[in-house]
Structure formats: C-alpha cells, structure tokens
Amino acid sequence: MREAHADQSAPSALSAPDAGSSPGPSEEAQVIVVGAGPAGSSAAFHLARAGVDVLLLEKSGFPREKVCGDGLTPRAVHQLIRMGVDIKAPGWTRSRGMRWVAGERQVQIDWPALGGYPDFGLTRSRHDFDDILARHAVAAGARLRTGVKVTDPVTDRAGRVTGVTTVSGAGAPVVHRAPVVIAADGASARLALAMGLQRDTNRQIATAARRYYRSPERSREEYLELWADLRFPRSDRYLPGYGWIFPMGDGRVNVGLGAIPHRRHGKADLRATLDRWMARTPEAWGLREENAEGPVRSAALPLGFNRHPLYTKGLLLVGDSGGMISPWNGEGIGQALEAGEVAAETAALALALPAGPRRERALHHYPVEMNRRWGSYYRLGNTAADLVFSRSGFQPVLNRYVMGSPFLLNTLARLLTNLTDKPSRDVIDHVLNTAVRLVPAPHARRR
Ligand SMILES: Cc1cc2nc3c(=O)[nH]c(=O)nc-3n(C[C@H](O)[C@H](O)[C@H](O)COP(=O)(O)OP(=O)(O)OC[C@H]3O[C@@H](n4cnc5c(N)ncnc54)[C@H](O)[C@@H]3O)c2cc1C
C-alpha cells in the first residue's frame, strides 16, 4: 500500500514536472481514469488511497473554467469531508440553507441537522474547485497528465477495454494500457459512446446557463437563493426549472438558470430569460450588464441515470458521463464525487481478484450499488421531471400552501436535495424514506 499524503494547501502540485505536464510516452496503470472533473479526481483519489496505481488523464490544464453554478449541498460537502479536503481553508463560502423566492413570497430553509450529513453547504468556483480536487488526487498518489485528450478506447479481440488512445498537442497518438478504465469525461460521454452506450432518449436532458456578476451586496449572503417564478420573455410561460443566485464570497455572485425543455415551450431562450430576470432584481444588487464578468455560458445536464449500463467490458461510467445529475434539482457535483468513490472501491476490490470471471463479477457490482443508492429516488425524480418540472417548473410545488407550512417546506427541501438519515430519525426521514422505498428501483441492465 502506498502511504497517502493529501496536502492540498501545498503550492500547486500540478506545476511539478512529473505531476501534470509533459504527456510522455505510453504508460501503464492498474486503472486509467479519463477526465479530472469531480468524478475523475474523486475516483483517482480513492483508488490511490487504496494503494491502486492510477493514471488520471485530462485534456485541459488546471486551473480551468467549467460552466457550473458552483453550489454544493450538504451531501456534496459530506463527500469532500470523506476525502479529507480542507474546507476550512480560505476561499470556501458556507451556506446556511436555501431561500426560495416565488412571486411575492420568499422563505428561508436552513439545511437540516442530520446525523449523517453536515448542516451547511458550500460554494467555490469550479476554476478553483477542480484544481484543488485534482491536486488532492495527486497528493494521494495518482499520476495526473494534463493536456492529454483521450480519443478512443482500446479493446481486445473480445471487445473488452484494455486501455485508451490519446493525443496531446501535435504529437502522434499514444496508447496507455490498464485492465480497468473509468470514464469521467463529462456530458460529452465520448468513451461511453465509443463503446456503444447511447443516451436513453426517454430521459430528460436539461440545459443551464450561468454568468458571474460583481455584487458585493449579495456576495456574502448566507443562503443559496432560488427563484421559482421566472418566465420566458416571449410566451410569458413559466420557466420549466428555476434560477439561482449563489454567493461566492469574493465580491461576486454566480447567477444562472436551468430548464428542462418541453415541446410545449418551444426553444428555451435562457439568455433572454436571464436578462428579463436581472432587470427585475433591485438596482442595489448590481446585477446589471456593467457588472457582469464574462459572457453567459451554457451547457447540458444529463439527468436521472440517462445512460446505462454503468459498467460494460472493463469500462465504468461515473458522473455526467453516466447521466448522474439529480432530476430533482440539477445538482451533479456531489453525485460525481460519490459515484467516483463507489467506482474506486469496486475497481480496487476487482483488482484484488484474478483476471477472469471473478473479477468481472466484482466489476458488475458497480451499477448494482449505484442502483441501490439512487435507483428508486431517481425513478421518482424522473417522473417528477416529466410530469411537473418540465411543464411548469417549481411553481406548482411551491404554492401558497407549501410556502406557508414549515413542515412541508422542510420535507420538500430534503426531498429535492436527498437529505435524510437512514434509519429514519424524525418524521420527515420516515415520510421520505418510506416514499422512496415504495418505488421499485429499475433493473440494472447488463451488457
Ligand atoms: C450551468 C450549470 C450549472 C450547474 N450548477 C451546478 C451546481 O450548482 N451544483 C452542482 O452540484 N452541479 C451543478 N451542475 C452540474 C455539474 O457541473 C456536473 O454535474 C459536474 O461537473 C459533473 O462532474 P464530472 O466530473 O462528471 O464532469 P465534468 O465536470 O464535466 O468533468 C469532465 C472532465 O473530463 C475532461 N474531459 C472530457 N473529455 C475528455 C477527453 N476526451 N480526454 C480527456 N479529458 C476529457 C474535461 O475537460 C473535464 O475536466 C451544473 C451544470 C451546469 C451546466
């Protein structure tokens, strides 16, 4: 076993010559992880901590931007704590809960005090966040190569993945080999597609857009603010999603909106909807063009396990590449971190077994475990997304009755963010755990 030292406060380990630069020649490892976003860095970190030789390949260099809302719920914070990330260091902004705004009404809901999760959330720009996590994986022993783009899986005659082909700069393609490969390459899911794992077209795919504004007035807010009453400018219909204003603690806010397009809405013009919304906010908040930092940027959100199976022929899918964003709220960082840990555990166990049927059986446990954790919850969430969120957003659930009842609000907040203790410790746990348990998880398909 390798001794792990995860000192992320050290000067960027990625600038060390052997850590994140020069692609070098062909390399071998026990596990190759493709993509150093939250999913890939989590998988690489947990593998390295388990003493597995892991090669983490990333096409860009750090630090780099990633279009995101930068918001972390207590579930995601819990994963950071499990990884030993120093969240007390400067740069992390804590949140006490959520503030929901709908029409004239607004309510604040504190994060619940649970036994299994912290009672605070965090924000941190992905520019810093992904850099910290990648460094954390390197400090634990992962070999990171940046500026290395994976182009294809390499397979043996039986079609089993045995490595990947990469290119960097104008160099010739290089083959790297490993008995297990983890695809953490985000929503593009290039590796999964190359292995024939198509997106399930019955599942929703949301789009979201965000922009930073300089807003000292709102930058140190204690609550993550969510607006449920935004409307498309042309049709005046409610946005089938919500808008957010997340405090970054550095004089800026991250403002954005996400929507699940439904054919009755036509094309979702997020930019125009954002402009209309910003014009509604008080002048003192400063959410105006002259205070904007950079352009509005948007990206797709693959929701509710929209790609399966999550394991096939030596390849495990984690994070957005496996469509793991929650259909309840569009959150995907915590999910990527958690799935990275499960994939790492699975791979470490499988590698302790001889190559062949026993190892294969161990690898097939990954989709089973993911399904056990989120199968029923996501099935329920996909139904809610189909029947409610994609039609009218959060308006129907945040009606006057719910907004006026602390019990209903807390129940809804905990449902949306998947925050319950198991076994149940209070009435809300009991209601939510029972509701989810009553929904059969979909069968984990094999290929
Ligand atoms: C506008 C918007 C707002 C969002 N807001 C939030 C939020 O507030 N909270 C939240 O929890 N989630 C949010 N999400 C979702 C969240 O961003 C994703 O779920 C999360 O980033 C998934 O992590 P990942 O590691 O799976 O993928 P990614 O973060 O996309 O990382 C994939 C990595 O793989 C690399 N890569 C890709 N292809 C290759 C290749 N061929 N070779 C090598 N490397 C490759 C990429 O460069 C990247 O570094 C938001 C998403 C959007 C679009």
From TrEMBL:
It holds the Pfam family FAD_binding_3. Residues 28-336 form the FAD-binding domain. Transmembrane segments: none annotated. Residues 9-26 have a biased composition (Low complexity). InterPro entries: FAD-bd, FAD/NAD-bd_sf, Geranylgeranyl_Rdtase_fam, Geranylgeranyl_reductase. Residues 1-28 are annotated as: Disordered. PANTHER family: CONDITIONED MEDIUM FACTOR RECEPTOR 1, GERANYLGERANYL DIPHOSPHATE REDUCTASE. NCBIfam families: GG-red-SF (TIGR02032). This is Geranylgeranyl reductase family protein.
